[in-house]
Amino acid sequence: MNKKNKLFGLVFLMMLVFISYIVYMYVFRDPDATAFLSHKPDDRSPDRMNAWLGVMRVHAILASMAMIAGLINFIPAVWRKFRLWHRVSGYLYLSCVAVVVLTSGYMAP
């Protein structure tokens, strides 16, 4: 295994660990995201809290998809042999990142 493959494997492993951590934290440990929502301003109406929670979930899911799509695009076999998949994955990446940026602005305090 050469140095480039080791680095790719390490990045892939780190990505999987990070996505697993996010899923654990916001699906199993704290599904209502009380730690996240505790940093929000005083306006804590149930409708607003549900909106923040929904936006946070969309943000986390699409950020995970963007990480996976971005990593897939760096696999040489994908962009050499499967041009269409590489292109579709790139569009998926850009779309996910655009929505993640918009949801970040909404979630900011």
Can you characterise this structure?
α1 (3-29) packs antiparallel against α3 and α3 runs antiparallel to α5. The model has no long low-confidence stretch (mean pLDDT 86). 82% of the residues lie in helices and 0% in strands. It has one domain. It has 109 residues and is mainly alpha-helical. It is built from five helices and no strands. It is elongated, with a radius of gyration of 17 Å.
Could you give a short description of this structure?
The chain has 109 residues and is mainly α. It has five helices and no strands.
Average pLDDT: 86
Kindly estimate the percentage of residues that lie in beta strands according to DSSP.
Answer: under 5%
**Count of alpha and pi helical runs:** 5
Q: Low-confidence parts, pLDDT < 50 over ≥5 residues?
A: none
Radius of gyration from CA coordinates:
17 Å
The H/E string reads HHHHH
Helix share bin: over 70%
Give the domain tally: 1
Which structural class best describes the helix and strand composition?
Answer: mainly alpha
Multimerization state: single chain
Q: Given the C-alpha coordinates, what overall shape results?
A: elongated
Count of beta strands? 0
How many angstroms separate the termini?
A: 46 Å
The largest pleated sheet is described as: none
